[in-house]
Structure formats: structure tokens, C-alpha cells
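Risk register update: the risk of archive-format incompatibility is retired. Evidence:
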Amino acid sequence: MTFAPNLRDSPVLPRRLALLVPVALAACARPAAAQRGLPDFADLAERVLPAVVSIQVTSREQSTLPPELRGTPYERYFRQQQRRGGQLVQGAGSGFIIEPAGIIVTNGHVVGNATRVTVTTHDGTEYAARVIGSDDLTDLALLRITPRGQLAAVSLGVSDNMRVGQWVMAAGNPFGLGGSVTSGIISARGRDIGAGPFDDFIQTDAPINPGNSGGPLFNMAGEVIGINTAIYSPSGASAGIGFAVPSDLARPVVEALLRGGRVDRGWLGVSVSDADEQGRRQRGALVMGVERGSPAARAGLRQGDLVVAMNGERVETSRALVRNVAGLPPGETVRLTLIRGGRNQEIAVQIGRRPNDSQG
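Archived output:
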């Protein structure tokens, strides 16, 4: 799986490939659009492209001193560059306008730790952009620009209404080529690609390439039902399998970022693994460690506890526990059912605020 925010190297995870092709059947019992074969995306593209933007990013990349430079005249130069903030790196991605006043949705990994963000609208106008906030768990970010007038905008649709096999259109800035569209179908829903506890991706065969990250995935009504985020690829380019964050998952994140510039996630302060991976017969989330001073520690959770339910609902996996807790507001009290020493017991835990880079 390749995250393709820009024209730089991207992290790569395990790779696979697939392709689907629609087939036209007998015309007698089918509507006119189906008789003609592939749909025409021209009207849809003309309507929505003015709301799709290209994003150019400048950031400073900190590097580790290569061992071969130690003790050489280049070591001093390298360290001077690091003290000045590291090497300047250019990147590019995509986004879309959701409010005419200049609010833009993109991926969090597109803007990253950017020192400067520039947005180019469909008519070629450039704007300096400010990052309102981002959410690591869903890889979403919100930008603000100050336009000279009202901008074209698109709305988030209901991704839960989408069915496997329905047509979609992706738009964005592949390889720096702004204002591009590609078409395909919904290949699958609910994909877990190992990116995080909130994985619930829409899979599509609409070609998505480096630079498309953060761009919209449209249904045929012109509503954004996904935010293009990642691809499976042996080469870094489209191999027919792309992934988009569903709009139903994105909507509350966007609303939270608009309200306060951040998404407050729940946190227990435990490291967990699946019970069946540890040879346990009972399914659940096995506590492998408890952080000192964390909500879990204050509530009395211990290493070796097997969490099997939260507020009476079964917990089958460690990922399910982390996801359920992360979806709660800090301060809420939950009831955990666990197995300790072969006996069931319940513990009340007041959820804390999730710090950055925390597992659970």
C-alpha cells in the first residue's frame, strides 16, 4: 500500500493488484444509459472540477547523518544545515472546497509538517493557505484560504449509500497535472489496509496516482463520497486498486476541525494485542502493558487482563478496543468487562485525552 501525497518518495506497505471491467448485456430490458455502455462523465466533471484544488507544499526534512560522513569535512556542513532547519522539500497533493468562503479538505499526510502551503484553484489562481487542523487517525486535514470572492464548493454525500459496482469519478492533481479526472467503480467497501484503527476504506479501480491524495471521489450526483488516500501498487503508480476515506467517517472529523482545529480522541493508556495471537481460546483484547499514570492505571487495569466487552458490547480484537475508545470523548466513563485469573470482573474507567502517537 502506497500513500501518494506528492512527488517525493512515499512509504510502501505490502502490495497486490486487481482490475474489474463492466460487461454490457442484452439491451431489450435495460435503460438507455446501460444500452450505450460506459457513462459519460463530461457534465459531472464540468460541474465539480471548479471546486477541486491543487496543493503545493514546502517542508523541512530532518535527516540522520550518514555513517560514511562522520569524521569527514562534510560532517560540519551537514550539521549546519540541520541547525538551520533541515533540507527544503517540495511536495504536491489535492483537495476540494467544501465552503465557498475558502475551507478545503485534504489528507493529513499531504500537508504534514509543512512550513508553507499554497493552493491553486481550477482557474489557476494561487492562494497562501493556513492549516486549520488535522487528525492522524483518519489522515484528514482542513485548510483555509482567503479568496477574492465566493468559490465553487462541493458537499459531502452519504458514503453508506454507495454499493459495490456503482460508478465513481476521482479528481485531483496526479503527478502535478492539476484538474484531472479518472473514472471507475466501487470495487469493495470496509477495507482494512493496516493504516490505523479507523480503517474503513472504500476501494475503487478509478486510477489514483501520486498527487491525487486528498482529492475527492465523487458519486454520479456530484457528491463527495470519499477522500482519495492510498493505493496498492508494485510501481508507485495506479495498479487498479485505490482507497478513499468514506465521507461518513470524514464528516464528524471535518466538523470537529472547523469547531476547534483538533479532534479530541479517547485514550486508555494500554498496549494491547489480539488474544488469539497469544494462544488464548477466548477472543478479546489482551493487555500487554499499562502506562504509568494513565486512565487504565488509575482504574486498576493490569498486564495480562483480557478485555472482552465495553459497556456490555463484545470486544473481539485489540483494534476494536482501540477504535471504540478513540471514538469516545475524553472524560466519559466506560465499563470494561475483563477476565483476570480466570474470573470475569468489571472495571469503570474514565477515558482520558489521547496524546499523539499513542496506541490505546
